[in-house]
Structures are given as C-alpha cells and as structure tokens.
Amino acid sequence: MSMSTRQQIRTLVRQRRQSLSAYDQTTHSDSLVSQVNSLDELASVKKVALYLATDGELNTTPLIHALWQQDIETYLPIIHPFAKGHLLFLRYDEQTSLISNKYNIHEPVLDQRGICPVSQLNIIFTPMVAFDQHGQRLGMGGGYYDRTLAPWQHTDAGPIAIGLAHDCQQVDVLPSESWDIPLSTIVTPSKIWRWAPSTDLV
Description:
Elements: H1 3-18, H2 22-37, E1 47-49, H3 61-69, E2 73-79, E3 87-92, E4 98-100, E5 106-108, E6 123-126, E7 130-131, E8 137-138, H4 144-149, E9 160-164, E10 185-187, E11 192-194
Parallel strand pairs: 1-2, 1-6, 6-9, 9-10
Antiparallel strand pairs: 2-3, 4-5, 7-8, 10-11
C-alpha cells in the first residue's frame, strides 16, 4: 500500500480522536488507569516511560499520578539533540520544567542528570495514531518510537513496549513497512489487547 494510504488513515483516525468530547476524554483516561493497573507487567517495574497527550491522544496524566503513588519512576521522551530521529528519556515529576518541542509537544528541559538509558526502562508506554487487529501500530510518521524499540524487538532484554490508544483508533488492517515495529500489547480504555510476538511483522 502507498504512503498516501497511511497518511489518509492518519487523517481519519486523528479526526476521530479529536472529535471526542471532554467527558469522553476524562472517562477514557480514568478507565486507562484501571486497565494499566491490572497489567501483570506492572507488578515489578521501577522505571516507566510515558508521554504527555496532544492532538486528542489518550490523556496519560491520571496514569502518571497513579504510577507516582506506587513509587514508580516516570520518564518522558525528548527529541535527541544530537542523534537525529532518536529519543532520550528524562525523569518526570512534580518539579520538572517543561518546554514545547518542534512538534508543539511538551517535553522536559534537557538535564543530563535526569536521563535514563532505554535499556534501564521496564516499560515504554507508546503513543500511536492507529492500530489494527494484528498489533501493527501507525505513528505520526517520524519513526522515533520505531527506532527506539527496534534494538529490543527480538530479545528478552530491555523494555517492554505497550501501546496506549482510544478504542476509536482501531482499524481493520494497517499497511505496514519494513521499519514498523508491531506491539504485543495495546491498552485501550475498554480492553487489553494481546498478541504473540511475531517475526513476520517487522
């Protein structure tokens, strides 16, 4: 399938989530907390990466506060200042100063003391524009998370990637490219989706 098809899906699904009411957004973010708290993976984690919602994404702030209450350290991505197309993850708490990056997404001010190597993160909760019934994820097109997750795709080491999305972001089938990293777990407000890791969806 063509790149234009991927862009058409992005446009359609972004419109879906942007059209959600404030009430829906609030109830969905509260439901997300319950769903994530039921994950077996959460039982023994110490360091978790998330993101701050934008563009109608599922609001993660209640989840972040819930993780803080469980003494789980949270980290946010920032655009790597030197390695183009890559992310760094910085510690996020009540005192963290935020700035807007070139995509108008809030991220922590770069402070080397707050950086956590990806290898030391237990879970990376991953944003997306859309997902399908096979666990394929469609991002915004920058490839940041695909590059971050690629080294850990076929190993038991490193972080677990878990996608977060509204239910309305599901589509039947996504056109995939060689660089796309499928997810074995995606959490929506109503359901936890699980797939066996596959070597043919790369």
